[in-house]
Hints:
nine-stranded mixed sheet, binds S-adenosyl-L-homocysteine, alpha/beta, two-stranded antiparallel sheet, 11 helices, globular, binds iron/sulfur cluster
Amino acid sequence: MTVTSADIAANAPAGFFEKAPLERYVPPAKPSLVGLSRAELAEALAAIGVPEKQRKMRVQQLWHWLYVRGAQKFEEMTNVSRELHAQLDAHFTLARPEVVAEQVSVDGTRKWLLRLPGEHAGENPHEVECVYIPEADRGTLCLSSQVGCTLTCTFCHTGTQRLVRNLTPGEIVGQIMIARDRLGDWPGHERAQGAGLPTEGDRFVTNIVMMGMGEPLYNFEAVRDALLVIADGEGLSISKRRITLSTSGVVPMIARAGEEIGVMLAVSLHATTDTLRNELVPLNRKYPIRELLDACRNYPGLSNARRITFEYVMLKGVNDSDADAKALVRLLKGIPAKINLIPFNPWPGTRYECSDWERIEQFSEIVFNAGYASPVRTPRGRDILAACG
Ligand code: SAH
Ligand code: SF4
């Protein structure tokens, strides 16, 4: 039997260290085609009476207009008949999630606040963030997988939010559509101008990280379906090597992620002992470090060319000593790994502080001398509160 992310989340001891997912997604009367797979597009066409012998060709056309050209209106689809435009228009939209705010940092980082429909009429709408981080030779888009998060990592602001709802594949794919819309990153569109945008290559969005709000492996099916659409070489075309999924350590779903999605894996380790990790990442009480690292060793496709990234947040006086750095290196021995040191990004009410810069450098040096490239993730977009957490 295949275990689903819903089973795993449902078997969590309620109120212990996880919150129950509250909200369901209620589809609008006129659904959007954004995020649908080829098979789902074929079903949508069947539902409005497109004859079977035409469907394959029509799916190809829709796929191209949706994911290569970024069409926002059916009438842009010039090789689709007027009659079909009208039919599509009567039943579907090409809507992306609603953008309620856009902020651009002095370093070029952009953050979009998206509003998603809630379950009940009149309730407060749900909001998630999507962040674009440009560098000279690439542009990385950080996507959210859930509104809030059922987990309660003590250093993470998202973990303190009460409301939780899984995003649909359309809402996950919709985030990249929005980024490309706003950046003019579709063929033939006017490209955005501004500080910090990539100067190499012909695309602005080249890499994806599932590192926004939520635990992607607790919304496995939607994340998988969305990432397969995003990685499709005839569509949005972001190769799997350029997509990284970050998990806090949902051990039973790690093998499935490798087999069914096949993207790069990042693991939020943050501590080298179970005692400390139980406190920082309470999910560790269920899936302790040893089990987590075993799942990493067995990650399908793992090799020196395809390493797992271990994320380690630098918390002053908590996990940042020389002894911690040495323990980290010992722990990861034998696993093809990269280590990513993340300066803690403080938020109002947090009990933690970020380690001093000299401490981070010292820590990084120990890791580097053990043979790991240990880039310290420079905080980006701090002026628009776009950094992690
Ligand atoms: N839920 C997933 C992915 C989203 S969080 C996970 O936990 O891996 C992405 C990364 O940001 C994780 O490594 C997480 O531990 C880290 N993070 C969360 N809050 C942070 C904060 N306030 N400062 C720095 N990193 C943080
Ligand atoms: Fe959820 Fe990740 Fe934040 Fe933990 S760090 S609460 S898993 S989003």
